[in-house]
Amino acid sequence: MKKLFTLFGAALLAFAVVSCGDAKAKKTKIGVSIPAADHGWTGAVMTYAQEKAQELNDAGKYAATVITSSDAANQIQQVEDLIENKTADYVVILPQDNTLENTMAKLATSGIPYVMFDRIIDSAASTAVACVKGDNNGIGAETAKRFIADGMKVSAKLGLIAAFGALVVGIVLGAVAALQRMRWTGNVRELRNAVERLTVLSGERITAEDVRLYC
Q1: Which residues contact 114 (CB under 8 A, 6 or more apart)?
Q2: How high is the pLDDT of residue 86?
Q3: What does the alpha-carbon distance between residue 81 and residue 99 come to, in Å, rounded to a whole number?
Q4: What is the SS3 string spanning the chain?
Q5: 173-193 pLDDT tens trace
Q6: Whole-angstrom Cα Rg for the chain
Q7: I want to staple 146 with a disulfide (CB 3.0 to 4.6 A). Which of 40, 56, 97, 211 is the partner?
């Protein structure tokens, strides 16, 4: 994770170095587009991005701005505004999802150099200055740090998340224990089918009662 954040900072600095040749040049404008801090990982990214942007701004030669988006549609609008209004010379972006594909194409066509961070849109990778990917272990560690910083205690209740395609649902630990107590004669495939069935039939959260009813 430290390496990932170092690369993120390096991406900002690499853009900054490009403009160092002319002492009389205007400040280089760097736009950093990231999702709003709605969980630990995005919170860690936002905090680090703001710190690095401040470091660049304090140097006096650059104007780095961190822009957070509430969802993909919001980020699309923000990036297209950057393009239209020419308010960024360079862009570092963590895309909300693949619906930004067309927007990334517009960014490439505009001639504004950009770096994609963590979530890489394949069709836009070839025109990016760099693509910096994250690692799940590091993301988990940074998420935990964020939860602890926000006041999470040892006694706090935790949940797991199961994702199948577009379906994402929380699984309370009681449900996990119930699944672990059951015999799965069909091995992993049977268990996977059971969890997918629970994902569809349960509400926003799978409980031990759901396991009893649907498995």
Answers
A1: 90, 91, 92, 93, 104, 107, 108, 128, 129
A2: 92
A3: 17
A4: CHHHHHHHHHHHHHHHHHCCCCCCCCCEEEEEEEECCCCHHHHHHHHHHHHHHHHHHHCCCEEEEEEEECCHHHHHHHHHHHHHHCCCCEEEECCCCHHHHHHHHHHHHHCCCEEEECCCCHHHHCCCCEEECCCHHHHHHHHHHHHHHCCCCCCCCCEEEEEECCEEEEEEHHHHHHHHHCCCCCHHHHHHHHHHHHHHHCCCEECHHHHHHHC
A5: 677 777 777 777 766 677 777
A6: 21
A7: 40
The fraction of the chain above a pLDDT of 90, given in percent, is: 32
- Return the closest-CA partner of residue 90 out of 173, 31, 175: 31
Query: Which pLDDT tens digit goes with each residue over 71-91?
Result: 999 999 999 999 999 999 999
- Give residue 140's identity as a one-letter amino acid code: G
